[in-house]
Structure formats: structure tokens, C-alpha cells
Design goal:
Blueprint: H1 2-11, H2 17-26, H3 28-48, H4 67-73
Length: 76
């Protein structure tokens, strides 16, 4: 039994970041197709989903007030 445990420990290899990049590069077409399908699905969902919130506003300017006096009332 100890021999199989030692053999298993010897076979364990450290995984480096370059190994992950190699896997992605090797499967670049699959990654690209999945990415493009995801972007297309997100576009469709965004385009076809009706807006949940919509707002409108109206600005009324009273007679006798100039634009400069209105701007001076704004505080930023």
C-alpha cells in the first residue's frame, strides 16, 4: 500500500499559469464562439426585454426670469 501512495505523490505535477493559457490557446475557437454567443444573447435579451422604468420631466421657465438667474439658483 505505501508503494502506491508514493507513486501517486510522484505523479502529481504542479499546474502553472502558462498551462491554463495553453489550454485556452488550444481551444481558442471554442472560447471565441462561446464569447460571441454570450455577447449576442446579452444583446438580444437587452433589446427584446421591455423597459421596466421610464421617466419624463418638464422644465417650466417662468416669464421674467433670465437664464443667468436660473443658473445661479442651481447648487452643485
Amino acid at each position: 500500500m505505501p508503494e502506491t501512495a508514493d507513486r501517486h505523490l510522484e505523479e502529481v505535477r504542479e499546474i502553472r499559469l502558462s498551462d491554463y493559457f495553453w489550454i485556452l490557446f488550444r481551444n481558442k475557437w471554442s472560447v471565441l464562439v462561446i464569447f460571441l454567443l454570450s455577447v449576442f444573447a446579452a444583446f438580444l435579451i437587452t433589446d427584446l426585454t421591455p423597459p421596466v422604468f421610464q421617466s419624463e420631466t418638464t422644465i417650466r421657465v417662468l416669464d421674467g426670469q433670465s437664464a443667468s438667474s436660473l443658473l445661479s439658483q442651481l447648487t452643485i
